[in-house]
Specification:
heterodimer; A: 94 residues; mainly alpha; elongated; B: 561 residues; Sodium/glucose cotransporter; two-stranded antiparallel ribbon; 22 helices; 2 strands; 1% strand; globular
Chain lengths: 94, 561
């Protein structure tokens, strides 16, 4: 006979929700990752080069500087968001 | 003191430091040998990852490649940093929670199959060996250029040092040596960059200097564009490669970075899942310092080289040109006998050939910096090559002792396993050294392709292993084999079978062999998915394991089976 423990079921639902929220965070951050590198740095580099910031053409700046700075920020935002999420769902490590 | 004395002193001191650390932190158990005991702080691990990751190629050659390819060089900048975002968001936390020692460990357990494990071991060994041979060569070159010994002796010295601390220290020794090596290499890279930035643009921050103005008030990049176009070259700030190719190469490098076994294993050394995430962030900060400086060094270097050499009288060239002419890294030939150096895009009339490595190696001399800075750059280049070589050797030895021997001889004692791991590392050092001294013509080529192969083999299988509970062993094996075969086939066809056909007209979708790993990755994903649809679901305990690795709590230190 299969046992159904309401607490277990509840926990399972919670973990499903946790995973969904996790995936959503990752997808949002990855779209930014794609936008700054493949978007601004490659696909849109030509038109963006018409805009200049200081001595930098914008498309060139994204390809050689901006995308890398954004990558760093993305990881730290991820760390922050995930730590909060872990706490909210009580799955954080002590 | 002259350059040679300074070089001996600085390289000697840095070596003494590495060996001292290795003796102090040597490994006594397999756990320490494979994952440094699992107690490394995220900051230290981030630094070690950065040193592990940045090879002789990043330190010595990358700025030069960018200098001569301008915008097209961005593929390396974005490709070799963007991969860390994938690593941090998609791989590191889950692999840390999984808590074993190696990538084939994960593949073998997740896909409940020793066949999958062996395929993964094969991929890991292939990638690591091609890569490590390039590093030993790098060590030899730095030795021969700066210490005036021949390349063979240089490689032998390098082998001895790496042998000493990789074999003795295992992951524990390597981790703490890499922390020291990172400090040496980043200091050595930044000092000349900052000085040159001040000299050229008046701005001490190279990242800002690149967007700054030169003496006559025009922007450096505009001026560079202008000069290069006048000489018949392409504009510095726009690309020659097709957008499709740039896209594919960048993607292959990013995904390949995230799939490289010697980078992934670094995240097994931290205590908790949240440390793995944070550690990836620190690693990228430390890498980004060098990677955002490199494009500045590149532009400064090419500008300086053209400014001080092109159009000058042949008999009155700066001293650094004469110094480096001895090594054939810079060649000046007055073809039309007018007594001036012509630097032109037309190969028939060009009189100045500059090797890409000069941009970093000769930077201190071009900027007329004190001799100790030259010695520092030599020590930095050595640190970059040694740290990467050690990390790769560890992957090789672990693959042999753990993924092969432990899988098929499970009753082996820990002591025996440690002996096998150390012997495997020793054999690997010798093989790598051999290829460093007698490089097969294809080594340099193959290193670039290691990324494509990692992208097409490991990455999809690991991602599916974490994010799909339905993915089964049939799918994974089919995926790895299809991705790897396709990518390898495409590369071999264009690079070795019909090199004359290696041009845009013949490439599929305009993608060069360098970028084909991204297509291989897609094929891998598709093959995984399709095959898994027609074969049974993975067993219940594996599905439970997947649920388990998605949740951070309860990650102990990396465990034995």
């Amino acid at each position: 006979m299969k046992q159904t423990d309401p607490h277990m079921e509840d926990h399972k639902q919670q973990m499903k929700k946790y995973w969904k929220r996790n995936i959503r965070t990752v997808l949002i951050l990855l779209s930014i990752w794609f936008l700054v590198s493949f978007g601004f740095g490659i696909l849109l580099a030509e038109p963006l080069n018409a805009i200049k910031i200081g001595g930098y053409k914008l498309g060139f700046w994204f390809a050689q500087q901006g995308s890398i700075f954004t990558f760093v920020i993305l990881i730290f935002v991820y760390v922050y968001k995930m730590n909060k999420l872990d706490e909210a769902f009580d799955v954080n490590e002590k | 003191m002259d350059i040679l004395t300074w070089t001996y002193i600085l390289v000697g001191l840095s070596f003494a430091l590495y060996i001292g650390i290795a003796i102090y932190t040597r490994a006594s158990s397999t756990k320490e040998f494979y994952t440094a005991g699992g107690g490394v702080s995220p900051l230290a691990n981030g630094m070690a990852t950065a040193a592990d990751w940045m090879s002789a190629a990043s330190f010595i050659s990358m700025a030069g490649i960018i200098a001569f390819s301008g915008y097209d060089g961005s593929v390396y900048l974005m490709g070799w940093t963007g991969g860390y975002v994938l690593l941090a968001l998609l791989l590191a936390p889950y692999l840390r929670k999984f808590g074993k020692f190696t990538v084939p460990d994960f593949v073998g357990d997740r896909y409940y199959s020793n066949k999958a494990r062996v395929v993964a071991v094969f991929c890991a060994l292939f990638i690591s060996f091609t890569y490590v041979a390039g590093q030993m060569r790098g060590v030899g070159i730095v030795f021969s250029r700066y210490l005036e010994v021949d390349i063979e002796t240089g490689v032998l010295i390098g082998m001895t040092i790496v042998f000493f601390y990789a074999v003795l220290g295992g992951m524990k020794g390597i981790t703490y040596t890499q922390v020291a090596q990172y400090c040496v290499l980043i200091f050595a890279f930044m000092v000349p960059a900052i000085f040159i930035s001040i000299q050229l643009t008046g701005n001490p921050i190279p990242q800002l200097g690149l967007g700054g103005t030169v003496q006559d008030g025009t922007y450096l990049l505009d001026k560079l564009d202008g000069i290069l176009v006048d000489l018949g070259f392409h504009q510095y700030t726009s690309g020659r490669k097709s957008v499709a190719d740039i896209f594919a190469i960048t993607l292959a490098l990013m995904v390949g970075t995230a799939g490289l076994p010697h980078v992934i294993v670094r995240f097994f050394t931290v205590p908790r899942v949240k440390d793995a995430r944070l550690s990836a962030g620190y690693a990228l900060v430390f890498i980004a310092i060098l990677y955002t400086t490199a494009p500045a060094v590149a532009a400064f270097g090419i500008y300086n080289a053209i400014d001080t050499v092109a159009g000058q009288p042949v008999d009155d060239l700066p001293e650094w040109v004469e110094n480096w002419q001895k090594t054939n890294l810079i060649v000046v030939e007055d073809l039309n006998n007018d007594g001036l150096v012509q630097y032109l895009a037309d190969p028939e009339m060009n009189e100045l050939t500059v090797d890409k490595d000069i941009m970093v190696l000769a930077a201190p001399e071009i900027a007329e910096l004190p001799n100790w800075v030259v010695g520092l750059v030599a020590a930095g280049g050595m640190a970059a090559a040694l740290s990467t070589a050690a990390g790769l050797l560890l992957v090789i030895s672990t693959s042999v002792s753990r993924d092969l021997f432990r899988t098929f001889v499970p009753q082996m004692t820990e002591k025996t396993e440690l002996i096998i791991a150390r012997s495997a590392a020793a054999v690997a050092v010798v093989i790598a050294g051999y290829f460093g001294i007698n490089p097969p013509g294809f080594v340099a080529e193959v290193v670039a392709f290691a990324f494509g192969l990692a992208a097409a083999s490991f990455f999809p299988v690991i991602i599916m292993g974490i994010f799909s509970t339905r993915m089964n062993k049939e799918g994974a094996i089919a995926g790895m084999i299809c991705g790897l075969t396709f990518t390898l086939g495409y590369i071999i066809y264009f690079k070795f079978v019909y090199p004359e056909a290696n041009n845009m007209d013949n490439w599929w979708f305009g993608i060069s062999p360098e970028g084909i790993g991204s297509l291989g990755m897609l094929i891998n994903f598709v093959a995984c998915y399709v095959v898994s649809k027609f074969t049974p679901d993975p067993p219940a305990h594996v599905q439970e394991m997947i649920q388990e690795i998605r949740i951070p709590r309860g990650a102990g230190k990396a465990q034995d089976h």
